[in-house]
Each structure stands twice: as structure tokens, then as C-alpha cells.
Design a protein that fits this description.
alpha/beta, about 15% strand, globular, 4-stranded parallel beta sheet, about 350 residues, Rossmann fold, 6-stranded parallel beta sheet
Length: about 350
Amino acid sequence: MAPVVKALQANPSIDSRVCVTGQHREMLDQVLSLFDIHPDVDLNLMQPNQQLAGLTSEILVHLDAIYSKMKPEWILVQGDTTTAMASALGAFYQRIKVGHVEAGLRTFDKWQPFPEEVNRRIISTVADLHFAPTEHSRNNLLHEGIPDESIKVTGNTVVDALNTIVNRPAPVEVTDLLETLGISETRQLILITAHRRENFGEPLEHICQAILQLADAFGDQMRFVYPVHRNPNVSEPVHRLLGHHKSIQLLDPLEYLPLVHLLKNARLVLTDSGGIQEEAVSLGKPTLVLREKTERPEGLESGILKLVGTDPKTIVNAVNSVLNSSDQNFRQGYCNPFGDGQASHRIVDAILDHREFTG
């Protein structure tokens, strides 16, 4: 959303305000700082181990007062978080137009990912403009009965954000880490991120078992780096199972800039994240998706992503296959299916065009 905020601020015909709920507080604050964004409203609603029902109700109640005071013409929400869903629903209650950035992603399984798949479907039912990142996403919306004229294929703003920082110098924490780990042509880096709610419990333990097997098998040839989410459903099993292996480096959650530079230096990525699937594809990095389904089939079609789920044997076999393969599908220099880095400008233009059309 950061490049959209910047594009809105740069247009003199638009008066834009930024509101954050505080969901994912630490990650939010570092991104705001990185992109020099200063929220006009910070609700700071997130509490430790907060349940979805409590967070949803808090967002609805607090934003209702904000909407009544500001009386905006449009609310823009991005993606499929509980914040995005509740913000869109609250705007609908006040008959405020809703624009959905990254619209139309679907797995067609309401439990995978949970609760994101249902969140984004709810947003689609109330949105007035749907900013689909790809033709796949557009077709999903059309099949659900969304009018074609309300869908704009823009590319994904993740690419816009990535392009603005990918060429910045690597932060010291990354260069020091790579040096400490001895990353080189003979000792390569595998980057891991796993934190999805549907993987809590046994699936995450299976992922950890696969990482242990791989670390034992590769020895000094590989180093596994895992920035660990602070949610205790993630941090407890990961530290318990992986915290004492010499080839596995567990880190605190990373800010966006160092994460991008670790991606740039990785030989392979293991992730259950949605955004990292897009960033890895944009950087041409082979990626194994630790989920049963993905709402980003474009990455699968590009050959960069492979779905592997959470079964340890399947993960181990897939890692060995990628690392031992000369498959040219894993390459840089192809046409990025997620866009050209101009999505934010297309979104702003579409809002202005809609306003002129409807009066």
C-alpha cells in the first residue's frame, strides 16, 4: 500500500489520509519509516494473542467514528487482512465507496488461507472498484458476477514497492550476517518464512522436521535463515525444534529492506507467505510454497513457485530436486507476471476516472 499512498499524495486533486489499525504493529512501524509515511490516524488496536472476533469488532467501532468525522468519498483497502475486511465493511455501512487493492485473489477453499480467503471475498461483495493485479484475478471476479467495468487490471503494488528499494544498499545487519554465515558460491543461503495461521500446530512442526533433515543432510554446504514471527504459536515450536542446530540461524522478525536483501542473496526460498511469493517471483528466486493451495497461480505458471505443502518428505524431496536441477525455468530476466511497477499510478487514475464518469 505504501506506493499507493505516495501516488495519492503526489496528486494535487486528491486529499488523502492514512489510517492504520495497528495490526502487525512491529512490521507496520518499520514499513512506515522506510517509506516515510506518517499516519493521520493510528488506532493502535492490536493486543497480544487477540482473537479475530475481538479485533474485527474493535476495528468496526473505531473506524465508524473516523468515517463519520472525515466523511471520505473513498476508502482504499489492500489485500485480505482482518483490517482490510473490517475497514471495507464499515465503509459499506456508511455508504462510502470502497476500492480494493489486490482484488480477486482466490484459492476457492475458505479454510486456506484462513481467514484471508473469506476476508477478501467479503471485500469483493462491497467494493466499488476492484484493482486486480493480474488477468487471473480479473477472471475470478468476473466468474463471481463482478461487473467488468468495475474491474481494473493494474499489476501488483508489491512490485512497485520492491522496485523502489531493491537497489538501495544492503543494510549492515545483512552484510554482517552473510559474512558471519560465510555465504558464498560453495555455501549457499536458504531463506525460510513460515507463520500462517492454518499452519499452526502439527503442520508447522512438520515444516521444522523437514528443515532439520535438510540441515543435517547438507552440512556446511547450506545455511538456513529463518526470521521467526513473534506469535507464540510460531516462535515456541520453531525455537524448540530448530534453535540448536549450527546450520540454522533463527532471527527476530526482519524489516522489509533487510528481508529483500536476504531474498536477493538466497539460493532458494521456503515460505507460506503470500507477499513473499510475489517478491521471490519478481526477483527470479526459486520458491517452495509451504501450503496446499496458492492464490497466486501466476507464480506456478512462471516456474518460479512450486506448491509442496507441509509434509516433511515432500519438502525434502522438492528442495533436493531444485538444488540439483539445471531447470532453466528458475531464472531471472523473464516477464514478471505480477506487473511492471506502475500499479499505483493506474489505481489513482482509475479513481479519478470513476469520479469523472459518475459525477
